[in-house]
Automatic annotation (TrEMBL):
<dbReference type="InterPro" id="IPR006369">
    <property type="entry name" value="Protohaem_IX_farnesylTrfase"/>
</dbReference>
<feature type="transmembrane region" description="Helical">
    <location>
        <begin position="251"/>
        <end position="269"/>
    </location>
</feature>
<keyword id="KW-0472">Membrane</keyword>
<dbReference type="GO" id="GO:0008495">
    <property type="term" value="F:protoheme IX farnesyltransferase activity"/>
</dbReference>
<feature type="transmembrane region" description="Helical">
    <location>
        <begin position="419"/>
        <end position="437"/>
    </location>
</feature>
<dbReference type="InterPro" id="IPR000537">
    <property type="entry name" value="UbiA_prenyltransferase"/>
</dbReference>
<feature type="transmembrane region" description="Helical">
    <location>
        <begin position="223"/>
        <end position="245"/>
    </location>
</feature>
<dbReference type="GO" id="GO:0031966">
    <property type="term" value="C:mitochondrial membrane"/>
</dbReference>
<feature type="transmembrane region" description="Helical">
    <location>
        <begin position="364"/>
        <end position="381"/>
    </location>
</feature>
<dbReference type="Pfam" id="PF01040">
    <property type="entry name" value="UbiA"/>
</dbReference>
<keyword id="KW-0350">Heme biosynthesis</keyword>
<comment type="function">
    <text>Converts protoheme IX and farnesyl diphosphate to heme O.</text>
</comment>
<keyword id="KW-0496">Mitochondrion</keyword>
<feature type="region of interest" description="Disordered">
    <location>
        <begin position="75"/>
        <end position="113"/>
    </location>
</feature>
<feature type="transmembrane region" description="Helical">
    <location>
        <begin position="178"/>
        <end position="202"/>
    </location>
</feature>
<feature type="compositionally biased region" description="Polar residues">
    <location>
        <begin position="75"/>
        <end position="90"/>
    </location>
</feature>
<feature type="transmembrane region" description="Helical">
    <location>
        <begin position="145"/>
        <end position="166"/>
    </location>
</feature>
């Protein structure tokens, strides 16, 4: 009938009374059960849920009445209704999960650094408490970065080839001193804290414009600039002093030089030239030299001046470790900076990641490959044994693989994140492997377990003994000859 007016579904008075008497009947007579568009509404809602990333759907997911969903789909699960692809075929669940993961994680920023986390923690503490002050000072020191630097310093110290490492009782030469190691690590950590605090002190205006640094203590006003300067000066003075009196003047000079380079050269250069990354890599390469010079100073046969500790024939190991740290920083930083390249650009930092993105990937790959000959050099010059050549090559190959992918995909499709985490694990693993594969370590352990003598000098004649005595070389043979 043309004159009939269609009215929406309604319930009569008698039906309302029946519903009031039996609530279950109300569920059966709800309008949604009889709506012609119910299935279409749910179909559209499911399409929106499954085609958007998880983070987006969580905030914008359209509400679906529970009983409407149940009535229309019955017991059918949501995962069984897949969106259709362009060619009309259903997208398999595993491909859909992989696609959503790639979409949500490829461009996701990397986790906040430890300084930002510590700033948040300190803000929850009482304003005048000592724990709050100590947490803020720890935040100023960038503890994760400082830990890696101290690790490389201690590794270089332990890798120095001191005679009779496992059997110091058989030699008159000094073995590595635990007290010296304490002064070395604590002094290096304090120098790092000073340099990092000065870096934050010079950049709060620009740190506030970047997601990874806007939560730092100076940006949030948790400490004044004067307070940060006092902390930086005190940490620098104590650090250099510890290295001077507990290690040697050469190491103390290198510690002070690193503070000056990081705060005085690298920090301002970030707003001038992309060469700031190379300057920062030089700063990162100095700590292994400090550890090597600290160990060399204990067994120096001459005056122990800086020329002997840094440029003698036996200093090649320290320079190789410094080169490893120099090379490592490019795949690490170039991948770290990629997710926030636009923030670097907007803040005015001259970084290769946005000035020349293609070259950024090439540089990361180039220096990742350079780790191979550097690690081989540690074996060639008998700092480590053959096992290190094998194990380090596996770790280096992993980082080169990620660097190749980072270069080919120009940071996209999760390649920047993959290289970043490969570099994070690469450095500590290689350092530990170098200590495990130190030249002569396992041979000495094996000889000691089997009761074999390590005194190969027993076969020297008297003239050779006198010659070595004059040259100031270790004289464990003298005691052995006396015993005969």
């Amino acid at each position: 009938m043309t004159g009939t007016i269609r009215r929406p579904f309604s319930v009569s008075l008698s039906q309302k009374a029946a519903i009031a008497a039996n609530p279950k009947l109300g569920k059966l007579l709800r309008r949604e059960y009889f709506s012609a568009n119910g299935s279409l509404d749910i179909s559209n809602a499911q399409w929106q849920i499954q085609s958007l990333p998880h983070e987006v759907t969580k905030a914008t997911r359209p509400p679906i009445p529970e009983n409407l969903y149940t009535a229309t789909l019955g017991t059918k699960s949501q995962s069984q209704s897949l969106p259709q692809t362009l060619n009309g075929s259903s997208e398999p669940p595993h491909r859909r999960r992989k696609r959503i993961k790639d979409e949500t994680n490829a461009e996701a920023p990397l986790p906040l650094d430890a300084s930002s986390r510590l700033s948040t923690l300190s803000s929850t503490m009482p304003a005048t408490s000592l724990s709050r002050l100590l947490t803020i000072c720890l935040s100023l020191s960038k503890p994760r970065l400082s830990f890696l630097i101290v690790l490389t310093t201690a590794t270089a110290y332990s890798l120095y080839p001191v005679p009779a490492l496992l059997l110091p009782s058989t030699t008159a030469s000094p073995s590595l001193s635990a007290l010296t190691l304490i002064f070395l690590t604590s002094g290096t950590a304090l120098c790092c804290a000073s340099a990092n605090a000065l870096n934050m002190l010079l950049e709060p205006k620009y740190d506030a414009q970047m997601s990874r640094t806007r939560n730092r203590p100076l940006v949030r006003g948790l400490i004044s600039k004067k307070g940060a300067l006092i902390f930086a000066a005190a940490a620098g003075a104590c650090g250099v002093g510890s290295l001077w009196f507990g290690v040697n003047p050469t190491v103390a000079f290198l510690g002070g030089l690193n503070i000056a380079l990081y705060a005085g050269i690298y920090t301002p250069l970030k707003r001038i030239s992309v060469l700031n990354t190379w300057a920062g890599a030089v700063v990162g390469g100095i700590p292994p030299l400090m550890g090597w010079a600290a160990a060399a100073g204990q067994s120096a046969t001459g005056s122990g001046e800086w020329q002997e500790l840094l440029f003698s024939e036996g200093s090649v190991g320290g320079w190789l470790l410094a080169g490893l740290l120099f090379a490592w920083q490019f795949p690490h930083f170039n991948s770290l900076s990629w997710p926030i390249r636009e923030e670097y650009k907007n803040a005015g930092y001259r970084m290769l990641v946005w000035t020349n993105a293609r070259m950024n990937g090439r540089v990361a790959l180039r220096y990742a490959i350079l780790c191979f000959p550097i690690c081989a050099g540690l074996w060639w010059f008998q700092i480590t044994d053959q096992g290190f050549l094998v194990t380090s090559s596996v770790v280096n190959a992993w980082m080169v693989k990620e660097a190749w992918r980072f270069w080919r995909k120009e940071g996209h499709k999760g390649s920047a994140r993959g290289l970043f985490w490969a570099s994070v694990w690469h450095l500590p693993v290689v350092m530990v492997l170098a200590m495990v594969h130190k030249k002569g370590l396992w041979e000495g352990i094996w000889k000691r377990l089997n009761g074999e003598s390590e005194d190969e000098d027993l076969w020297l004649d008297d003239e050779e003994v006198k010659t070595r005595d004059v040259e100031g070389q270790p004289m464990r043979v003298a005691r052995a000859l006396t015993a005969h």
